[in-house]
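Ticket #327: bound-state structure for tryptophanyl-5'AMP.
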Amino acid sequence: MAKQVVFSGIQPTGDIHIGNYLGALRNWVRLQDDYDTIYCIVDLHALTIPQDPTEFEADRLRAAKMVIAAGVDPTTSLFYYQSQVPQHTELSWILGTLTQLGALNRMTQFKEKADQAGENLGLYSYPVLMAADILIHHAHKVPVGDDQTQHLELARDLAGRFNRRFGDEFPVPEGIIPEHGARIMSLQDPTSKMSKSDPNLGSRILLLDDPDTVRKKIGRAVTDSGSGIEYDWDNKPGITNLLEILSLFTDTAVDALVEEHHDKQYGAFKQLVAEAVVDGLAPIRSAYSSLEDAEVSRLMNKGALDARSSAEKYQVGVREKLGLTGH
Ligand code: TYM
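RESOLUTION: The complex was predicted; output attached.
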């Protein structure tokens, strides 16, 4: 039986942080064994906020290198820049004609980003392009963090709507949202998500942060009043976030960690978390430094060629269903 298809994407804006890694990237890597995996640097999505073209070019390459350094193997997975595969935008237009404005008005990310970057049509229709990213490859599964749930729901709706109206074409995609790690919180405000766009750099640990920076950021992480290492999002969000991070980097269940460290002082516990993160990031940092820019660019170009031809095969069927075949 043919393997099911996994698709996911990451924006090349700001550096990739451990939230992206624990919520999504790590699962991208693991899924490579059992699925046909397709991963994408979604550069067109990133244009919805203003970018400096020269910096953007460099950001894209850096993001691609980080994804590879984190373990995505471009000879196993299809891995490419979204803008190099025009079928994404073609399908996005088509899906846009099936999208109700009410659905877009309900998107919380649009509201948040519009506040930061100003409104534009791209930002508004962003979830439609994301649906196209997923559907263009007939993906079955989409590994993401929990902030993408609402967008994923739109992709599912649009797949169903297209299928009912024009005949079966798209599988209805399902999210792969991990039980732990789907929402890593800011180190400076553990009630809000760790985010690439937070102006406070102390709020997040980047995949390429050196050991001292990791230690400093975790040392300064906001913790809670009282004492005791407990897993309690309501009353101890700071410590709970650190427990979650420790659990994921050491592959140890949270319960076992709580039992072992319950009586530790916050300071000693933070040191432990910092060392686990330093160890977890070491192989990524070292893989990153041995990647050559030219080689990665070559791999990305090859990925785009392959992605274009596989997307085109499906897109022929979509055009036929819509009466766009020209005969
Ligand atoms: P982006 O680039 O913001 O984030 C990439 C992935 O990281 C996850 N993530 C987190 N997970 C846990 N804790 C956090 N604090 C955290 N912050 C981010 C995100 O959920 C995401 O999985 N719209 C997408 C990109 C995209 C996409 C797609 C994803 C475009 N097309 C198609 C899947 C399928 C985004 O902005 O991700």
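RESOLUTION NOTES: Residues 293-322 form the longest helix (30 residues).
TICKET STATUS: resolved
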